[in-house]
């Protein structure tokens, strides 16, 4: 079911400050910069920042071929729904659940992803 790690999401209550800090850490700016999401391409993988300060949990998103099927399977295996699968732009679909231990477990279907190297 899983194709490999694709995205790590961090929540920052002040998106401008988060963008500035991660730009300094990485040594380069984001490739995508909007009020609802800031995305950095780190060696072909996504580091995303969200401005939502109400959810402190970090999310990790695993690549899948079919986000709806993967999401449904996780629910069947006992995960709790968190964010239903939705189109997040450019044909990319993502959603996440809480695993039985309270961790965010995300799935992402990204037709544009190419393995680095």
Question: Can you tell me about this structure?
Answer:
Helices cover 19% and strands 44% of the residues. With 117 residues, the protein is an alpha+beta fold. It has one domain (4-109): 2,3-Dihydroxybiphenyl 1,2-Dioxygenase, domain 1 (Roll), CATH 3.10.180. The protein has an eight-stranded mixed beta sheet, with helices on one face. A hairpin with a 2-residue loop joins strand 3 and strand 4 (45-50). The longest helix has 12 residues, at 15-26. The chain is globular and about 40 Å long. It starts with a strand and ends in an 8-residue tail after the last strand. The mean pLDDT is 90.
Overall SS class: alpha+beta
| Major sheet description | 8 strands, mixed
The total of helices stands at: 2
Given as residue ranges, the uncertain stretches (5+ residues, pLDDT < 50) are: none
Q: Which CATH architecture is right?
A: Roll
Kindly state the number of beta strands.
8
- The percentage of residues in β strands lies in 35-45%
Task: State the domain count.
Answer: 1
Largest sheet, order of strands side by side? Answer: 2-3-4-1-5-8-7-6
CATH topology: 2,3-Dihydroxybiphenyl 1,2-Dioxygenase, domain 1
Task: Let me know the CATH homologous superfamily.
Answer: 2,3-Dihydroxybiphenyl 1,2-Dioxygenase, domain 1
Helix content range of the residues, please? 10-25%
The gyration radius over C-alpha positions equals 14 Å
Q: Distance between termini?
A: 23 Å
Broad shape: globular
CATH C-level: Alpha Beta
Q: What's the mean pLDDT score?
A: 90
H/E element order? EHEEEEHEEE
């Amino acid at each position: 079911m899983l194709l490999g790690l694709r995205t790590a999401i961090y929540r920052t209550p002040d998106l401008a400050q988060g963008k500035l800090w991660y730009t300094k850490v990485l040594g380069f700016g984001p490739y995508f910069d909007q009020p609802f999401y800031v995305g950095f391409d780190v060696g072909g993988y996504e580091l995303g920042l969200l401005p939502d300060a109400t959810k402190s949990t970090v999310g990790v998103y695993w690549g899948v071929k079919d986000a709806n099927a993967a999401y449904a399977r996780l629910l069947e295996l006992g995960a709790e729904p968190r964010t239903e699968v939705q189109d997040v732009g450019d044909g990319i679909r993502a959603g996440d659940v809480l695993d039985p231990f309270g961790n965010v477990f995300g799935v992402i279907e990204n037709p544009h992803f190419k393995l680095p190297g």
